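Appendix B. One record, verbatim.
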Amino acid sequence: MGIEERKERERERRRQQIMVAAKRVFSEKGFSKTTMEDISREAELSTGTLYLYFKNKEELFASLSFRILQYLLIRLEHVTKETDKGPVEKIAALKDAMYDVYEFDPLIIINMFHLQSSETLMNLSPQILSDMKEMSKKAMREMAKIFQEGIAEGIFIEKHPHALTDIVWSMFSGLVLWEESKRIINPNKDFLKPTLDIAFDILIRGIKRSEEPS
């Protein structure tokens, strides 16, 4: 192993160390109350070292969010490639995939939705912002394939597949944030999954043609 390769491995190891520490601190204190100093203490590194790897806490959090988007893309690709399922069944599988991504790391996905709808995006480096946008586009394009298939087969109404994708993503993010706000008031209330079931049932009824071709 050459010197440069060893340096790169060490750099990646240190980067992962910081991200693991950041995830613990974000989970404990929340995004808004977390500081780079908190993360450096958790990682047992100097704050200056953190800034060698990440521009700010927004960029650090965006890197954690990027992993969620990667996992989402993997789950979506699995759904679209299921040849034994029709478009309606794939919509149901899409719902399960999205909930699975939420369960994989609820805190990160909740804060990712906050991040995407706030000015904190402006604090990201151009490269990380570009990477997140590209990964988001890939995930949305993959989701749109399900609607394209249903429209092509005459099962779904003829509406733009990407518009339908935007509606599904907005519905999912909105329900996650709304149910989370309710759970803050009453921790015993966790109705995301049944509410998501109802939302997707209404969605499928709404986009299906009244008469499918024989």
